């Protein structure tokens, strides 16, 4: 979920420019689209102006509490990090994904990172909240998540094979290119 949020943020934000020059309307629209019905009604009312105002205030913050990542004047994630704390390894993985190394350096580097962490955290915690309210046990949820992940990887792998097959049909001596590609992937 964080990787998808990062894609949306990086496509609409530039750490070198002031947030008023970012595509915040597009960012919110894309975020709401991928969120589907996970988010509660408190997030639905966020406007481009409110997000811009909040980002302007966040630039003044001195530090960020990892237990309570939020943007001023915007809704807080439901019971922040409750589900992620069940396993410390999950929290460590999430924090590694949110590494600030992914964000381009610039004057608004910290603001960009905070936006990524806020949106990612809000989505993840909202998902965990829905799972908890569903009443399903952890083992069942893990099995469903694993099945979805395997199915997704399988679809991407099939698409890749189809694309490689198309490539081979258009390029003479394609077998040589595939061997070079396979050697590259192995290294």
TrEMBL record:
| GO CC, any one term | membrane
Q: Where is the SecA Wing/Scaffold domain?
A: 2-171
SUPFAM superfamilies (UniProt xref): Helical scaffold and wing domains of SecA
Q: Which GO terms describe its biological process?
A: intracellular protein transport; protein import; protein targeting
Q: Name one GO molecular function term.
A: ATP binding
The family database entries (PANTHER family) matched by this protein are listed as: PROTEIN TRANSLOCASE SUBUNIT SECA2, CHLOROPLASTIC, SECA INNER MEMBRANE COMPONENT OF SEC PROTEIN SECRETION SYSTEM
Tell me what this protein is called.
Answer: Protein translocase subunit SECA2, chloroplastic-like
**Which organism is this entry from?**
Prunus avium
Its organism's taxonomic lineage begins at: Eukaryota, Viridiplantae, Streptophyta, Embryophyta, Tracheophyta
Name the gene that codes for it: LOC110756113
């Amino acid at each position: 979920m964080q990787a998808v949020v990062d894609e949306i943020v990086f496509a609409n934000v530039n750490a070198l420019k002031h947030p008023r020059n970012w595509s915040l309307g597009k960012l919110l629209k894309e975020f709401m689209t991928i969120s589907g019905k996970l988010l509660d009604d408190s997030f639905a009312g966020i406007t481009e102006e409110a997000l811009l105002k909040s980002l302007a205030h966040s630039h003044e913050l001195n530090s960020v509490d990892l237990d309570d990542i939020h943007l001023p004047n915007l809704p807080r994630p439901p019971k922040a990090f409750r589900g992620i704390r069940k396993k410390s390894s999950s929290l460590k993985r999430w924090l590694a994904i949110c590494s600030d190394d992914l964000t381009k350096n610039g004057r608004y580097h910290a603001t960009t990172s905070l936006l990524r962490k806020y949106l990612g955290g809000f989505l993840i915690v909202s998902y965990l909240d829905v799972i908890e309210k569903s009443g399903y046990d952890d083992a069942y949820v893990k099995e469903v998540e694993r099945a979805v992940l395997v199915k997704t990887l399988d679809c991407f792998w099939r698409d890749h094979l189809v694309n490689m097959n198309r490539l081979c049909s258009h390029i003479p001596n394609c077998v040589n290119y595939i061997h070079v590609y396979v050697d590259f992937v192995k290294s």
